[in-house]
Amino acid sequence: MNSVKSLVWQQFFALLRKECLEVWRDRRAVFTAIITCLLLPALTIGGIVYAIKNNAEDTFRLALLSRETVPLLEQRLADARLEVEIIQEGAAKELLENGFDLVLKVDDNFNSAFRNLLIPKLYLYMDSSSEGIRGQVTYLQRHLSGFQSVVARQRLIARGVAPQVLTPWQLEVRDVSAPSKRGALLLTMMPSMLILGIFVACLGASIDSSAGERERLSLEVLLQQPLAGPQIVLAKVLAVSSIGWLSGLVGVAGLVSVLPLLPLSELGIQYSVSLVAIPMMGLLLLPLSLLVAVAQMLLALRSQSFKDAQMQLGLLQIVPLLILFGLDMSKVDLEVPFWQFVPLVGQQQWLKALLVGETLSLPLVIAGSLVTLSLVGLCILVGARALQRERLLGAT
Q1: pLDDT tier for residue 291 given thresholds of 50, 70 and 90
Q2: Can you name the CATH fold of 58-174?
């Protein structure tokens, strides 16, 4: 009896070796997996760099268009971010086309109206199609509003009126969010990109090992071997998931290598990934890689041909990403323990927490991973039962 079991397992490992060789010999699939796992996180990092660039306090040029000298505005407007240049004649549109970011036109009678306590007018010209123009306009408006408040207070004091009469209260905005929470908002796309990378990496291998073998008639030969259906499906799943897991591992390594080099502190984000969290992220992706591989193989087996499987699975790659983004954008409380047991969502939340330095509940992580592995086992049984159908072999 033991010799029979030993022979069965020998045949299983021989099949597993054969499936792994077929998967890893496909240079196109390996190249796609590596490029995908690097490209998708790179896009997210590019978004972070873009956010940092927009958040940075870059200087911008302001043309103060006035026929008479206005020393009051000249002195108050000049600061570290504003490069003010006085221009007496010119059209606002031409000045904007010649390199100025904003043009502030002063009314001709500004000085006399200001001295007589009238309300002189200022006209602000801008090109709304320019990048970052909204932030520049907001900064200038805030700058002028502060100066306007100072002038109003000085006028009240000069007439013996307490400035507090016109200021019944003062509002101060204080952000009490933890740095890890601010990091979670910005880093929310990275786990989703890692998961999408696993889907894309497993795509070619899963189709080739199921619909591809059926078209090449090698699947029928394989079913004639003294191996149970679950063993055949398990060997294929392990081989296909290996390339998806590699994609996830390389993606994690790329993220933890590049993110410390980014000036995330400029956005108020605390990024801290411990040495323990790095291998933990890799282990969390293993059950997900198995689930993705077996799900794609089942869908490929249901297709009519290799091209049909490529078309169907190619269109379905974006569905998990849309679901994850939809849950993130909605008002669903994903911190509820229930979501830890949902495949894809649980892995996304765990990866997000590890990226921002939060601690995980080990019992919930183990329970959620076991749920994912149980679903993998169920899909393997469904796939083994599908291999017993004659209609499957006849589909071409």
Answers
A1: very high
A2: D-Maltodextrin-Binding Protein; domain 2 (3.40.190)
Task: Please tell me the predicted confidence (pLDDT) of residue 373.
Answer: 92
Cα 204 to chain centroid, rounded: 24
Q: Could you give the 3-state DSSP secondary structure of residue 125?
A: strand
What is the model's pLDDT at position 215?
Answer: 77
d(CA 243, CA 35): 12
Compute the mean pLDDT over every residue in the chain, rounded to the nearest whole number.
79
* Residue 212 contacts residue 55 (beta carbons within 8 Å): no
Q: Which tens digits make up the pLDDT trace of 181-198?
A: 555 555 667 788 888 888
Residue 65 has pLDDT above 70, yes or no: yes
Domain ranges of the chain: 2-53+180-394, 58-174
3-state secondary structure the chain: CHHHHHHHHHHHHHHHHHHHHHHHHCHHHHHHHHHHHHHHHHHHHHHHHHHHHHHCCCCEEEEEECCCCCHHHHHHHCCCCEEEEEECCCCHHHHHHCCCCEEEEECCCHHHHHHCCCCCCEEEEECCCCCCHHHHHHHHHHHHHHHHHHHHHHHHHHCCCCHHHHCCCCCCCCCCCCHHHHHHHHCCHHHHHHHHHHHHHHHHHHHHHHHHHHHCCHHHHHHCCCCCHHHHHHHHHHHHHHHHHHHHHHHHHHHHHHHHHCCHHHHCCCCCCCCCHHHHHHHHHHHHHHHHHHHHHHHHHHCCCHHHHHHHHHHHCHHHHHHHHHHHHCCCCCCCHHHHHCCCHHHHHHHHHHHCCCCCCHHHHHHHHHHHHHHHHHHHHHHHHHHCCHHHHHCC
